[in-house]
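F.,

This is the one I mentioned.
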């Protein structure tokens, strides 16, 4: 479900940079100047994509976060530094 949401948001971003009337690709600078609402949506989509990607667990067999490398106590499901969801390999073996 999270992967589908990320795909939908990435599609939305691609469509913001595409003019269906002319078939042209638009630059983000052009969108910012000519369609500020779409520009804000493009930025918001990007923030949402980054947040959703952190919900996809990254496997980790060490005590450091696989995304940022900061120490994360084994009992933590999320990195307290970057918010990445962590799947401990020892948890996976027990399931
Ligand atoms: Zn982290």
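My design for it:
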């Amino acid at each position: 479900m999270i992967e589908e949401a990320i795909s939908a948001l990435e599609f939305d971003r691609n469509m913001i940079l595409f003019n269906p009337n002319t078939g042209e690709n638009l630059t983000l600078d052009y969108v910012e100047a000519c369609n500020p609402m779409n520009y804000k949506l493009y930025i918001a989509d990007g923030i949402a994509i980054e947040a959703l990607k952190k919900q996809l667990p990254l496997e980790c067999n060490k005590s450091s976060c696989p995304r940022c490398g900061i120490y994360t106590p084994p009992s933590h499901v999320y990195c307290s530094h970057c918010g990445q969801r962590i799947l401990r390999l020892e948890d996976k073996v027990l399931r």
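The chain has four helices and four strands.

Talk soon.
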